[in-house]
Amino acid sequence: MTTTWRGPTRPYDLVKEFVAALGIVALLTVVLAAVFSSPDEHAVTLQDWARADPHDFVATAAGELAGTTTSAGYGPPYTAEGESQSIGFLHLEQWAGTRIPVRPADDFVIGPLTATPHDTPVTAALAAWNGATADGRTAWASAYVDALAKAKDGDPAAVAPGDYGPVPALSAGLLALASGGGLDAAAVGAPATTPSGFYGTDSTRSILFLADGAYLDDLAGARHLHGDQWGMMNETGNYPGQPWLWLYSFWYQVPPFTGAWEANADAIIWGLMMVLSAALLFLPFIPGLRSIPRRIPVHRLIWRSYYRRYGRSTSRG
Amino acid sequence: MTALHLPPGAGLLDLNGDGSYLSWGVLQISWANALVIALMVILFGLALVLPFPGAPEDGGDGR
Amino acid sequence: MSSPPLDATGPQAGAPDVAGPPPSGWTARLRARTLDTMSAEDLLPDRQPAYVASWIYVFGVATLAALLVVLVTGLVLAAAGPDWWHVSGVGHFVNSLHLWSVEIFFFVMVVHLWGKFWMAAWRGHRALTWMTGVLSFLVSIGAAFTGYLIQTNLDSQWISSEAKDGINASGAGAFWNVLDVGQMMLWHVTLFPLGVGLIAVLHVLLVRRHGVVPPLEAPAALDVDAGARLDADTEGRVSLP
């Protein structure tokens, strides 16, 4: 016998208890599923984005070419250059390396345009882009990004005249490709780490490109899914989400994570949650914490019938 | 912004659409999550105080 | 912690039929450390200590039951493939079963954790029981997270684009790509269920091995194991008058 209990016992049918629990849980699950169902808001395609918010799409395409989008400046694991996050001297993100290489301008814009047949303006624009220097490309694209930001409603048709090179034609060409549904099937859908684009099981590039724009972000904000809306806990609609993530979500709402530490907030909060999880794991060994149950005697409710019969000792523990 | 969802699955009550949220300062929680957490606390409390069958008030069988 | 194995030498030719020299050889030693530490009655007892008389005790078994419903509904979803629930009413219903059983699973598991905390259930060499419980909670969160990632809908698009920042910041994102729905799907249906399952089995075996923790403030005369002390490494035997 491994149990050391030699005191009073009572009959207790574990298997019956399990079967009863299973029946109750299964029934409750069926009732909840039948009454409330589950949410399924359809995925946004690049075509959806191009059609619903073409101005944002064009601005994002130009931003990829200018290297000003989130993806372009992300750093490891996607790009070698960029600000990665750190916790003091711990540069974990950087040390892990650029293992999922993504080249935003080429992967999201030039590549798909090159891979699909186009009319002459886009072909000429591609030739101009490919024939230019890196500095020249950046100058054109940055100027166009700034001009779009100043234009009324971000409308490319309302952009002030300027030297933007082939960037307007490239952005317009990508918009046309996306609006026709071709971009979802083209090189953006290709896996980031393997050559073949036939089986699109790696959605890395598509999501990075989509998340560079404001469209997905706006959809999420309208559904209270942003980090600073406790979004990590939430589900779309009125469905319960992930209430167990309350503490992870909490830090994103308060300073200094919303202020001075914002640039490294993800890294620091992750580290903090690792420490707190370790504290929960090793609780039995942490003085002070492990004696809370003694100081706040909730157990007197749990074991009250036992204490009534056998007494309760207050001289120890 | 466009709501891009198909008609909801066949539930009796439709929980899709704009969610309802409780706000108090920096705290913001959906009614759904708040209800879940409240139910957890209530059930925990009930589990502590409700008498357990087969366990007479004097503490059960001895042997 | 464990009583001497009852029959450590086993039915070997020429071996005495009593507890003799310590077992030698890998097989005998493995058996001594595992099978011999618990009898069938330890694994499936039909009696419990008298203090196991509170509704708080049902939340552990409820967690196991909910886990089983999660696994079975997940198996059905896996059998039909990741697109099925988007296009089929039955598939959508099974997805709903899977989602609500997960909500129930976390609900009862956390209430179980609250109960075990207020009982200081790690006492009496039960630290590992507590730790496997916490581990199964943490790994379950990972499992649920990958489940949300593979919904292949708007929610999963957003969750992956947000979560990547936290996971990348830890350095793990370079190897564990939350934007790669293929990788996340395989983790969700193989590695995480295996992890949660194995840890849960270990946890339950530990509960059976050490028994349900005796009450705090138990009367001194009963001298129950770690009944009054709160640290993880006391041992004791009970002798009733």
Question: Quick recap of the structure?
Answer:
The complex is a heterotrimer of chains A (317), B (63) and C (241). Chain A is mainly alpha-helical.
Describe the protein's topology.
The complex is a heterotrimer of chains A (317), B (63) and C (241).
Chain A (H helix, E strand, L loop, with lengths): L8 E3 L2 H23 L9 H7 L1 H13 L25 H5 L7 H12 L4 H12 L2 H17 L16 H13 L2 H4 L18 H9 L2 H8 L23 H5 L14 H17 L10 H4 L3 H4 L1 H7 L7
Chain B lengths: L20 E4 L2 E4 H19 L14
Chain C lengths: L25 H8 L6 H4 L3 E3 L8 H23 L3 H4 L1 H30 L8 H23 L4 H16 L11 H30 L31
Helix pairs in contact in C: 3-5, 5-6, 6-8
Question: Can you characterise this structure?
Answer:
The complex is a heterotrimer of chains A (317), B (63) and C (241). By secondary structure, chain A is mostly helical. Chain A has 2 domains: 177 residues, no CATH class; 76 residues, no CATH class. Helix content of chain A is 50%, strand content 1%. Chain A contains 16 helices and 1 strand. In chain A, helix 2 packs across helix 8 and helix 6 crosses helix 8. The longest helix of chain A has 23 residues. Chain A starts with 8 loop residues before the first strand and ends in a 7-residue tail after the last helix. By secondary structure, chain B is of the alpha+beta class. Chain B has 1 helix and 2 strands. In chain B, strand 1 and strand 2 form a beta hairpin. Chain C has 8 helices and 1 strand; from the N terminus they run H-H-E-H-H-H-H-H-H. Chain C is mostly helical. Chain C has one domain: Up-down Bundle (Cytochrome Bc1 Complex, Chain C), CATH 1.20.810. Chain C is globular. The C terminus of chain C is likely disordered. The chains are: A mainly alpha (317), B alpha+beta (63), C mainly alpha (241). Chains B and C meet through helix 1 of B and helix 5 of C.
Strand content of the residues of chain C, in percent?
under 5%
Following the backbone from N to C, one meets helices and strands of chain A in this order, namely: EHHHHHHHHHHHHHHHH
Looking at the overall shape, the CATH architecture of chain C is Up-down Bundle
Poorly predicted regions of chain A: none
Mean pLDDT of chain C: 86
Largest sheet of chain C: none
Radius of gyration of chain A: 28 Å
Domain count of chain C: the total is 1
CATH topology of chain C: Cytochrome Bc1 Complex, Chain C
Shape of chain A: elongated
Mean pLDDT of chain A: 91
- The helix fraction of chain C, in percent, is 55-70%
